[in-house]
């Protein structure tokens, strides 16, 4: 019991000493030991990392789930360590409504059949969106949260300890200055030596933790690459789904002509249905490729092709590409079916099929 009382008294004395030192510093009545420039820069960088990690995390959450009420609900389920209820997203809800209405009008009619096909495509897009959100949550949001709730909290804890050790050090310096008697000065010098040692040790611990922020940046860069790849796959899938749907809807000319006639009767110009360029394949598009590439691969001939995206060659055997340029492509027996030989003037090399659109 006496030990606890003494410990409490010692802690109270330390707290009071720190409070007096802090107050006198604020009033300009006491000197303050400044941290070295390197440590200050590390602290500033850590704060900057924390600030922007929070902002990026918040805006990504808004992008993945625009509904704030759903975000709050998912947050509570996460804190309770329970699985959030599965719900249909907006694309799936629209798709189901289109399928139900199409079946009601009759899938044998042009309008009913078109509604069903649109609904099925909307549900496919909904599924792709669900996979994109799940992938982004695991590979992008979770590492950012782990930094804020784990590593940075540890940094804050050690930084607070460093602040306390600095206050103890400066209080010991002040005590030594005020000591008059030889015995008091000897005790003050011993106290200063001990607090200086504790401050130096805590500064080193804090520095090592802060220097680890560099590895955090490297990790977050890999997470950012994963996020961009997930977006690329998601948008490519959505584009391919809609291109395929447009081709299917093109088989209902009577529907479009009736719309055009209706527009003409109303005194307006006829309505034309735009046709999007259809690529043979896109990354993550579920292997929906046209027969053009299959014929080219089997025939061994050559065709002109338009480049859809920029591509940087990974080696000397490959050919770098620029979006919208036209090159000649051909197939070589035994070659991987995902690649073709591309030619641009006197340049020649392997090119990925997913970056090309065959021209007639």
From TrEMBL:
One of its GO terms (biological process) is apoptotic process. It holds the Pfam family BAR. It comes from the Eukaryota. Residues 300-360 form the SH3 domain. GO terms for cellular component: Golgi membrane; mitochondrial outer membrane. It is found in: Golgi apparatus membrane; Mitochondrion outer membrane. The keyword Acetylation does not apply. SUPFAM superfamilies: BAR/IMD domain-like, SH3-domain. It is a peripheral membrane protein. The keyword Membrane applies. InterPro entries: AH/BAR_dom_sf (IPR027267), BAR_dom (IPR004148), Endophilin_SH3RF (IPR050384), SH3-like_dom_sf (IPR036028), SH3_domain (IPR001452), SH3GLB_SH3 (IPR028503). Its main location: Golgi. Residues 162-198 form a coiled coil. Gene3D superfamilies: Arfaptin homology (AH) domain/BAR domain (1.20.1270.60), SH3 Domains (2.30.30.40). Keywords: Apoptosis, Coiled coil, Golgi apparatus, Membrane, Mitochondrion, Mitochondrion outer membrane, SH3 domain. Residues 24-258 form the BAR domain. Belongs to the endophilin family. This is Endophilin-B1. It comes from Astyanax mexicanus. The lineage of its organism: Eukaryota, Metazoa, Chordata, Craniata, Vertebrata. The gene is SH3GLB1.
